[in-house]
Amino acid sequence: MTKPVIVALDVDNQTQLKEILASLAEPSQTTIKIGMELFFNSGANIVKELANQGYHIFLDLKLHDIPNTVYNATKQLAQLGISYTTVHALGGSKMIKAAKEGLIAGTAFNKNVPKLLAVTELTSISDDVLSNEQNCKFSMQKQVLSLAKMAKSAGSDGIVCSPLEVKILRQQLGDDFLYVTPGIRPNHSTSDDQARTATPRQAKEFGASAIVVGRPVTLASDPKSAYEAIKKEFN
Ligand SMILES: O=c1ccn([C@@H]2O[C@H](COP(=O)(O)O)[C@@H](O)[C@H]2O)c(=O)[nH]1
Fold first, then answer.
1. Pocket test for ligand 1, best of 9, 10, 37, 40 (most atoms within 8 A of CB)
2. N or C: which end of the chain has fewer CB within 10 A?
3. Is it the case that residue 196 has pLDDT exceeding 70?
4. pTM of this structure
5. Active site at which residues (predicted)?
6. pLDDT at residue 191 in the model
């Protein structure tokens, strides 16, 4: 079975959106990620529209609020036809539990409940930022593992982390949990806002369940070839 290469549709207009979608596989074979940029530009209707076209949707709004607010928000999101959504693990176990309950409450009878993914430490956070700005006393690996364990016990279906942490996480938390990894850079020399990166091949070797790829596809001179090459490397 091929593992998903999830393309992050981080665009603010329909023209660019259509161009990228045209480079990807047919909707039923494709998971696309809608993040804050497209959602705040086009609203919930774009989510419903793309879901109706048959795409599997990863709605990445990274909710982080009090449990009651998150419950009511995920209850709404569950009605959009999405497959995955995200909260920040740092919101705590009560918030994660509420997010899951909201998804269950908002899902129509005989539809699948969207999978809940907890974002551990963003892939843009370096070791330096973790210790000097977040004042975390643990190593990155220990911190991500601790958040992932808590998220799993609170009911999340998986986590978002860097590919660099997946091997140890999978050993500790098992295979009945999703390890979704952004921070994918086919060319390791690229320098941008991502701090904890790996190539698609490394993500595969470390055991990622799915990878999330944005700019390496959307900014490529030939997005279709870039997407196909990443899929081949990851599978
Ligand atoms: O820890 C995280 C969580 C989410 N993301 C999202 O993934 C994509 C990555 O895009 P690139 O252009 O490939 O960097 C983007 O939508 C982020 O919001 C993440 O990067 N790290």
1. 10
2. N
3. yes
4. 0.97
5. 60, 62, 65
6. 83
Asked if 149 and 176 touch (Cβ cutoff 8 Å), the reply is: no
- Report which protein residue has its CA nearest ligand 1's atom 10: 214
Judged against a pLDDT cut of 90, whether residue 181 lies above it is answered with yes
Strand partners, 56: 31
Model confidence at 70, in pLDDT bands (50, 70, 90)? very high
**AA identity, residue 40:** F
Question: What gap in Å lies between CA 11 and CA 41, rounded to an integer?
Answer: 9
Quick check: CB of 11 below 6 Å from ligand 1?
no
216 is in an annotated binding site: no
Tell me, yes or no, if 127 is annotated catalytic.
no
d(CA 92, CA 177) in angstroms, rounded, equals: 18
The answer to whether 193 is a known catalytic residue is: no
Domain that holds residue 188: 5-234
> Could you tell me the CATH number of the domain that includes residue 11?
3.20.20.70
Is 60 annotated as catalytic? Answer: yes
Instruction: For ligand 1, say whether the CB of 48 is within 6 Å of any of its atoms.
Output: no
> What integer is the mean pLDDT of 130-154?
98
C-alpha 64/C-alpha 66 separation (Å) is 7
Asked whether the predicted pLDDT for residue 189 surpasses 70, the reply is: no
| Nearest protein CA to atom 5 of ligand 1, as residue | 182
96, 89 Cβ separation under 8 angstroms = yes
